[in-house]
Amino acid sequence: MTATGAAGSIGAPRPIVAVVGCGVTGARIAEVLAAAGARIALLDHRIDLANAVARSVGGVRVDLAEALLADIVVLAHPAPQAPTAAKFLLAGVPVVSMSDDVDDVRDLLELDPLAVQHGVSLVVGAAMAPGLSGLLARLLADQMHEVDEIHVAMHGTGGPSCARQHHRALGGTSLGLHDGEWIRRPAGAGRELCWFPEPINSYDCYRAEMPDPLLLNRVFPAVGRMSARMSATRRDRFTARLPMLSPPHKEGGIGALRVDVRGSLANGARETLVAGVAVRSGTAAAVVAATVTRWLLDSGDGQPGVMILGDERFPTADLLEGIRACGVQLHEFTGVSRPPKSDPRDHLPLTTDD
Description:
single chain, eight-stranded mixed sheet, 17 strands, 2 domains, 12 helices
């Protein structure tokens, strides 16, 4: 919260941000927001972990009753998050949710009337995918006259909870949009070779139970085709419908996100624009959630009800600049050298990958 922002004005008390969930992502959210000047309240059923994170960021561990007094809450715990979100909305606390579980996201979207009734914002899908995927889709879509396809692909996982969700997503039912009709197919099929920014490069990606199409459809209702895939090995696909054979790592390696937007320019020419990131998934998700939280606190521009990243109510370029300032480098795939200065894409906060 800056000295000139609404939440950080001179003489104004520092805002209190409650972070529910103190895993890999939650701890990083707390670090980013504490460094920005917020007071951090941490809530987790793992008391020792919550105390450890509180000590590391100069925050405090609280119970639910105390957390309900915060200025805003970030939900960084495993799904379901909708029941927790409802409690904070009832208390008049804005909510930033990071859930990537399809059923949980549907339940969160149904909380829109509750958020409107209490005059607070509910941001749904403020992570890497969904979340950053929506911001990149908006950034690319705004360069086109008409968009008819949006495709998302991701690689890697964050902490253990994210790894478990990744495992379930490959064993569930994928949701996609084809010529305006919703299609549901078994996850783990539909192989497609996707290129990500270096050092990830190419991976085979498969349909997965991801909420990106569901959320992007609300932001881009005229787009007729949408899909979401994630990278997987043969072993991942074979064991996806079985319990995890070994405990997940504390944190995965470098992850990646790719957003592919297709459509036409004003002159009728077809165009495909692709952007992405290559960074630890937990870091990217935490930075997105923290950046959105800071924007809501500083600007006060959040509107009552559900908000989804990529919505025109969000200042997409400003949010992406804030995300980049936190060390998440954005990349644009062009296949050619950087266009001349007169190219309309020169304003993008993206690094070119030839």
